[in-house]
Amino acid sequence: MIARARSLGLICGALPPGPLNAITDVEGVKVGHHTLRDGDLLTGFTAILPHPGDLFRDKVRAGLDIINGFGKSAGLVQVAELGQIETPILLGNTLSVGTGFNALVTRALAANGDIGRDTGTVNPVVLECNDGWLSDIRARALTEADAFQALDAARTGPVEEGAVGAGTGMSAFGFKGGIGTASRLVSLDGRGYTVGVLALANFGNAGDLVLPDGRRPLPPAGPAPGEPERGSVILVLATDIPLESRQLARIARRCGAGLARLGAFWGNGSGDIAVAFTTAGRIGHHDRADLVALVALNENRIDLPFRAAAEATQEAVINALLAAPATSGRDGHWRPSLADVLRAPS
């Protein structure tokens, strides 16, 4: 049975989790994976769909925070400028960003005959981490067909975690990393809302990991003294709280607090990015009104979503580590499982 943080008594913060403790606790959000395991290839795509409709015509409000910008993602400049997302979000490895971009463009063009003709072009959002320690990233093995399979596999309900999809070849804190997710419930004006986070964990030096109970587990090989931090982490935050894009950027920034609780310091070579969106107050591409109504959170109540972002991020990364098995990859490189280390007799 795959372990999660709570099954091992690791509680991150004070807010309650959602029923699935996953990003898919936010109604309408779907996640899909496509995994490629073939010899020295341990890679894949993960897709996050903010809602089941046509995102180009029915965009979601969004914000982002570049915690440390050593990354090669696509689409973030327009997200920062316009505060909206108009395609599914694809996660992959560093050298698959162009492939994911092309796949999202292909799908958007097929569904919207006016793109590039009667209306503007489309802004695909693709984010990445470098899985080259365990996988042969130079092979550039991922194809548009692989991206389509991740998109088509997207479902509501429980999210598969660990060494799947984009997380197949990732490492974190000297352990096998990958995909993890968690959620938090908050109450505003007497109504319940959800904040969910999905993490692609590929960051952190061996020996730096701090668990919620204070333990600092070491991989069997131990830490490498003075090793620079060259990993990355991608965080996708979803919520149904009505928010402005500026507020979403502020909440995305608090994902960094969750990383800090784990012992991360965001090294020079680390690409650490948080993207947040809300399913509330969507933006119609062809809305003809000059002025549109906007319901948004009272800024004086934003501490609850801040806390939810930090807690869910911390737990999502731990869930990624616990779900990922010990893995051998390219050229005999190996990453141990955090779950195995925690279960070993002391």
Automatic annotation (TrEMBL):
Which InterPro entries does this UniProt record tie to the protein? ArgJ-like_dom_sf, Peptidase_S58_DmpA
Gene3D superfamilies from the UniProt entry? L-amino peptidase D-ALA esterase/amidase (3.60.70.12)
Pfam families, per this entry? Peptidase_S58 (PF03576)
Extract the CDD domains matched here: DmpA
Q: Which domain of life is it from?
A: Bacteria
Instruction: Name the Gene Ontology molecular function terms of this record.
Output: aminopeptidase activity
Protein family according to the UniProt entry = Belongs to the peptidase S58 family.
What PANTHER family does this protein's entry cite? Answer: BLR5678 PROTEIN, D-AMINOPEPTIDASE
- Which named protein is this? P1 family peptidase
